[in-house]
Amino acid sequence: MAISLVKGQKIDLTKGNNLNKAVIGLGWDTNKYDGASDFDLDASAFLLDANGKAQNDYDFLFYNNLAHPSGGVTHTGDNRTGEGEGDDEQIKLEFSKIPASINTIAITVTIHDAIARAQNFGQVSNAFVRVFNEETNEEIVRYDLTEEYSIETAMVVCEIYRHNNEWKFNAIGSGFQGGLDALCKNYGLDV
Question: Tens-of-pLDDT digits for all 191 residues of the chain?
């Protein structure tokens, strides 16, 4: 049975359970909306060093860069509508392949073209992130985002971080203004 977390809680993912392959599933719905454009939410992963920065463009996985050269982190691709039940986008982790230089993996979601389309996370509901064992499909942890994000166009949903050679999950749920550009700059990338 999965453990449900609230914002700010942390949990060990790998300690004592031989977890090597995990999937981070992200899902969301959009509220009734009478704007001219559809919503397109995009999950991304920033692979960060001990200083909280991405070392190069390969450490930023999104719909146009689906796999880290190490094979340790893979994005399964863009879902442009978010329709249907379950995960809308997934990011796969293989812990044994993640380079030692990577200390944290920040999982984010942004709204594509949010400013031009006048969209924000206040128009998104039922957002969640969950982690499950890829080999057994057992859900390990689930974090439902319950806050009202009325002006934010980007979100740091969670962090997967290394501590004493084990990997942990941190429920972040922090909104960001400025979309994907602001996130990239925050993590040390020029876009």
Answer: 678 988 999 999 999 888 999 999 999 888 766 666 778 889 999 999 999 999 999 999 999 999 999 999 999 987 766 666 789 999 999 999 999 999 999 999 999 888 888 888 888 888 899 999 999 999 999 999 888 888 889 999 999 999 999 999 999 999 888 888 999 999 999 87
pTM (two decimals): 0.92
Burial class for 187, CB neighbours closer than 10 Å (0-12, 13-18, 19+): buried
Distance CA 116, CA 120 (A): 11
CB 55 within 8 A of CB 101: yes
CB of 135 within 8 A of CB of 21?
A: yes
Is residue 104 a contact partner of residue 187, using CB atoms and an 8 Å limit? no
Query: Could you give the CA distance from residue 76 to residue 149 in angstroms, rounded to a whole number?
Result: 26
